[in-house]
Amino acid sequence: MSDPVGGAVGLPPPFEPQPAPPHQAPALAPTRPVYDGKLSELYGIYLRHLLLMVLTLGWSRFWGRTRIRRYLWNHMAVLGDRFEYRGRGIELMVGFLIVLAILAVWAGVIWAVWHFGLHDRAVPGVDIVNLIFVSIALIGVPLAYVGQYSGLRYKLSRTRWRGIRCAMEGSSWSYGARATFLNFANAMTARLLTPVVSVNLARPRIVHARVGTQGFDFAGNVGDIYGRYVGFYFLNILAWGVAIGIAAAALGGVIERAGFGQEEIKALGDLGRLRTILLIAGAAFGAYILFGVMILPLRCWWRAYLYRYLVSHTRAGNVLFTTGISTRQMWGYLVLNYLIVLLSFGLGWPWVMHRTLRLIANELWLYGAPDGSAIGQPLDKGPRFGEGLLDMFDVSGI
Prior knowledge:
- This protein has helices spanning about 40-55, 60-75, 90-120, 130-155, 170-190, 195-205, 220-260, 260-270, 275-310, 325-345, 350-365, 390-395; strands at about 35, 75-80, 80-85, 160, 165-170, 210, 215, 215-220, 315, 320-325, 365.
- The relative contact order is 0.16.
- A 7-stranded antiparallel sheet has the order 1-2-3-4-5-6-7. The protein has a 4-stranded antiparallel sheet with strand order 8-9-10-11.
- The protein is an alpha+beta fold and about 400 residues long.
- Helix content is about 60%, strand content about 10%.
- A hairpin with a 2-residue loop joins strand 6 (about 210) and strand 7.
- Helix 6 packs across helix 7 and helix 10 (about 325-345) packs antiparallel against helix 11 (about 350-365).
């Protein structure tokens, strides 16, 4: 595989490595992570996990997730040394139970407010159950972002490389507030702030991560990528307009050839409201999927560019990073993953995880090596319990 720096990435390296003085050894050649896991072994762990989930009514999932992580971590190596996962299933379960207890208290508070204050002034059609679920859904949006950050902190705190613990600094609540505000502002501006959201949410996740006492630096700037995003944004609108126009013309032609008039269409609606609704919903979903696949290469172009930018603007001490992932690779990765999960009714998740780590190992390049003598163990040992918020309000996966 060719060296990805320069033309293959499409961006100049933000951190230019300085030439070594004559008395020092020359810089190390670029290296890639190595993933040597086997899909058959991963499926063996996963199927056992599913069987125990059935037998324990789902309560074994914390230990099953831990076993899968141990396998994946232990089969990924960087600079010749494998990662090690030290998390425990009991930590995940306790974290989940704590969040469950907090939500139970929240539901009790909502019940008390309803019973003693709002019961006589309730909105017609809204009862206590609706109010509890709506309130949990509203607080679940910011808590999902808090859970993403705290979940990353837990996983890093249970990860070792060369015997050194990884860690995550910063506040989960500060990150959750920032992510909530930025995503709300992005929604209000029709997603024109996507580069702002991407860079400003990537920055704290990168600069607060630690391998022992070795931190990461991020030199990304929103202005670097905004021009490309604006081009992608309007091309995306144009592509959707063309696709919808083609679909409308095709649908009109089908209706005309079938001889449907207003009376026939009205009679179709009278055959059964539920049947008509399901038919319309199915057609709309099918059209959305078709349009999404048609326009997906354009989205993959932006996503691949964004990943190349974020990776190439990150460094860890003497180690520089870059990736040469292309639009074609991103498109094939996303489409095949979607088909795997859809056609297997969710049983293809091990294959998706396996493909993800293989893609990372094939397309991530490291330049240089860390100064081991300058890296010590982090003072923070991480949270005692893990991922309760992530498990409750987000699809945590692995």
